[in-house]
Each structure stands twice: as structure tokens, then as C-alpha cells.
Amino acid sequence: MKILHVEAGRHLYGGARQVLYLVQGLKARGHDNLLVCPLGSVIAERAAPFAQVQALPLGGDLDVGLSRRLLALIKASQPDLIHLHSRRGADLWGGLSGRLGQVPVVLTRRVDNPEQHWLVPLKYRLYDRVIAISQGIYEVLLGCGVPQDKLRVVRSAIDPAAPERVTAPRSSHPAQPAGASGPRARLGLAEDALVIGMIAQLIPRKGHQVLLAALPELIRTFPRLQVLCFGQGPLSATLAQEISSRGLSRNVRLMGFHPDLPELLPAFDLLVHPALKEGLGIALLEAAAAGLPIVATRVGGIPEAVRHGVNGLLVPPEDPQALAAAIAELLQDRERRRIFGQAGQALVACEFSVEAMVEGNLAVYRELIP
Q1: What's the chain's Rg over C-alpha atoms?
Q2: Listed residue (108, 106, 111, 155) closest to 137, CA to CA
Q3: Which among 92, 180, 224, 351 would be 20 to 30 A from 267, CA to CA?
Q4: Residues of the signal sequence (predicted)?
Q5: Predicted structure pTM score
């Protein structure tokens, strides 16, 4: 089977990493991959051993020429199936190209934003199957009018066995000796600090400002609390200003993007994810695989990755008081953090394996290509 994949992300964030896992797994099973991605994207280099990579200009929703470029590639490469992994124009123009090229089209949907009802009959007729990465996204799409017979759920995955993956929670680690070069030392953190990590793009729906609103009360209770926000995005300057205006500069740092983030996870005592919307949350799976307890919001697909009272605590979105209370509950209980961390590792191993994700996608392909 030859699959033409289209991934519009320039960085190796959660969605692009899923594509990398998928093409690697498909290659191992004897299938051929052709990957279309943006010029200069990280995945272009990383996927080269597993796919024929074709870097193209991908200009977003208004890039009408993308349909022409993809159609030319379809005619030249003759794929059995097209798998669209992104929005930002790749979904619309990729779907149109597949229809014009008379090739089955699969769309993976990674976000839980509702579609406009008037658009659904027009847009979703372009796709033979729509894969939701969580049950939460499935329910949103179903509610928007996407036909149920087109919808499938294949959850995102991570690889806990990857060499760089952390596999033990910080609560099980002994204190580092003076001068040690462990993750806390690398981040300039004191060994006796309580450390909260947040890993998300700096965009409104990730809920950074809800966390900032919850912090004054927490810092009064835990004066040695440190909060590290990893990620980049358009809210960077706004968040920096709010951190300063709230007097949080001693306790909160914007860390930017760190490609070695898995190596730094043992520095955290807790991961917090106060998202307003979330398809599933690869950062949650990463944290769970690393043995970290999690406080997150009960939205989208998050309850599938964070089971309340099992590997973390869930709170309503946009509720700083509830968020602060849940964080305080876990910061005060080291043993409960350890138990939640172990449960999270077991959950990821059981329900979010790369093998299951690859086989789930293949099962969808085989519905269209017997």
C-alpha cells in the first residue's frame, strides 16, 4: 500500500510527532509512504528514513494553488490513499485534490473545535473517513453533523520505550548531590523547590492565564513554588507582561521551546494543563509516561488521558479557584503524587501505545483499500 501523507506543521509538536510514529510503523509493516510537508520543517528530516519526503509551499486556507500542487503529485506518484493530518488548508485543498485525483481520502482531526453546521455537508463530503484522535473529538464532530459512518476513533500515542523517554517520577528519585548536573540543576532550580510544569503552545485556548490567576493564592501557601511554562506562540509578550504585573516574576518563567524536554520532566513535581479546549493532549501522555501526576481541565479528550483520582485531578475550565485547590491538594501529598505517577505510566502503556495507533490507522485504510 502506498499512502500520501500531508502534514502542515513546521515543528515537531504533538500532531507532527504522531505522523512520524505512523510513517515509521507503516514502513516497518512493508507499506510505502510519501510525505508532503512545509519547506524547512523539522519532520522533513526526521521522516526521511521512513518516507519519500516532498517539501512544498503550504500557505494555509487561502493557498488555492496547493490543490494544484497536490493534484500534480497525486498523478505523478499514484498513491492508493491520501491521509491528511492537518488543518490550515491541508484539509480543504488536500481533500479537493484527492477527489479530483479519484483517490480515497482520510482526514485526521486533532482538535475539538466545533465545525460550522452549514460547512459540514460541503467540506466533509471530501473525505471517505474521518479519524478523531479521542472520543471527545468524535462526539464534537458527530454533534456538528459529520456522518457517523465516516467517523472512527484512533487515539494518539507516545513511545515510552524511546531512548530519551523518562520512565520514573521525580518523587521516586533521591535528592541530587551538590553540583549534580541533573534536570533541576540544568534549569537553575533548588532541590527543595516545588515545581509545576506546563507544556503547551502560548495560545489562548491552552489556559495559561487561568493558571496565572490561580498562582497568587498558591504562592502564599507554597512560597518556594516554581512554575515553568514550556512552549512558544503569539501570547508570549502578553503572558510576560501579566506575569510581571501580577508580581509573579520570581515564581514563573516562560521557557520557550525545548527539544530536549523529555529529559527535563524529572524536574517537575506536577504537570498542570488548564486548557479551555483540547483534542487529547500529547503533553499529558508525555507527562503520564514520565510518571508525573497531572492537574487538568475536564474538556475535550483530556479525561481520556487524565483519569480523575487515578493519575491526576480534573477541574472545570476557566476556574482559577478550583485549579488552585487541586494543585494544592497534590503539592501537599507526595505519596499521592507517586501513586498517580505510577498509574499514569500503566495507563499510557495499556491504552496509548504506538503499535495500537499504527494498527488503528491501518484498519481504517483497509476499509477503503481491501
Answers
A1: 21
A2: 111
A3: 351
A4: none
A5: 0.84
